[in-house]
Design goal:
about 180 residues; alpha+beta; Immunoglobulin-like; 2 domains; seven-stranded mixed sheet; four-stranded mixed sheet; 11 strands; about 25% helix; Ig-like_fold; Ig_V-set
């Protein structure tokens, strides 16, 4: 393999990895203090006339489900979790988790179930977001009822699309500059 094709292969691999990482779902990190409230962010891509059905899971265990006004709260989460119906109608499917415990820490996944019916009923489950929740122990004198918010993206970062385009142009340019005679 010559230098030119080797360089081009490395460029194409770099761009493929970056595009793959950039397009993949990332995990959002949220942290909260023991006993406080955390909001695990989630936004629906679209809300149609179909029945709104959202669920949040952790390790394949259901934490919360809402289908219009009907709700289910998983074991250990009773009375502590909600996705308010009025917020859900505005495309906000964020999970509100009150009175955080140390066992609440983990990666939560929100899923929208869409039922479509034309000639036959089809059900599609769409993963919306993944949120990693960490719970900090605070000394009793420092406890507060503040609501925590996302602290950023815990996933791997990749260059912005413009940098990817410039990288591709550079790769093509170098391929022609170092072209074998």
């Amino acid at each position: 393999m010559d230098t030119r094709s080797s360089f081009f292969s490395i460029c194409m691999l770099w761009i493929s990895v970056c595009v793959g990482l950039h397009s993949g779902e990332s995990v959002i990190s949220v942290s909260g203090d023991l006993g406080s409230t955390a909001v695990l962010p989630c936004e629906l891509k679209s809300v149609g006339t179909e029945t709104l059905y959202i669920s949040w899971i952790i390790k394949s265990e259901t934490v919360f489900e809402r289908e219009d006004s009907e709700t289910y709260q998983g074991e250990g989460y009773e009375g502590r979790v909600d996705v308010p119906e009025e917020e859900l109608r505005k495309r906000n499917c964020s999970l509100v988790l009150n009175n955080l415990t140390l066992t609440d820490a983990g990666v939560y996944t929100s899923i929208q179930t869409v039922r479509r019916s034309k000639r036959s009923v089809t059900i599609e489950r769409i993963e919306i977001s993944r949120v990693s929740l960490s719970v900090r122990e605070k000394p009793p004198e420092e406890k507060s009822d503040e609501v925590s918010s996302p602290t950023g993206d815990a996933g791997m970062k990749c260059p912005q699309p413009m940098i990817l385009v410039l990288s591709l142009i550079s790769c093509v340019f170098f391929q022609f500059v170092f072209k074998d005679p």
